[in-house]
Design goal:
alpha/beta, five-stranded mixed beta sheet, about 25% helix, about 30% strand, globular
Length: about 140
């Protein structure tokens, strides 16, 4: 796998995600382990210090699946919020985990089930809670 771009992660998101990782079951274990590696290598900052161009939890992100040449818009959510978020993608899904902490313009290669890999590029952050002053959502 190629070198991954640096990550910036909201401290509160990191704490919540660690609880999800710790509670992972067999179905989500592979994603949980990959997400834990991302948390370990990321720069964890206070919510007020998250730059506006970084994908944080609850951000609505426009990204391109470079392998399919397809642009997608999704809101990165915790698994419990999937049923109430029309365009939601869970952070415990492979592509959702890949988006966390990336900046606009970043590209990442991310493992998928079955040994495949997906290449994603962040094109825009259409909505981000920190940018809107929602630091403790």
């Amino acid at each position: 796998m190629t070198t991954r771009p640096p990550l910036i992660i909201n401290r509160l998101d990191a704490e919540r995600l660690q609880r999800l990782i710790d509670a992972a079951d067999d179905d989500t274990l592979a994603v949980a382990e990959a997400l834990e590696e991302e948390l370990a290598r990321g720069e964890v900052v206070d919510p007020e210090d998250v730059p506006e161009d970084v994908v944080s939890m609850c951000s609505q992100v426009q990204f391109t699946d470079l392998d399919r040449d397809r642009q997608i818009i999704r809101t990165l959510v915790y698994p419990h919020a999937l049923s109430t978020t029309e365009d939601g993608i869970s952070v415990m899904a492979p592509v959702g985990a890949a988006l966390l902490g990336l900046r606009i313009g970043d590209t990442i290669a991310w493992p998928l089930p079955g040994g495949r890999e997906s290449r994603l590029r962040i094109d825009a952050i259409l909505w981000q809670p920190e940018r809107e002053g929602q630091f403790h959502r």
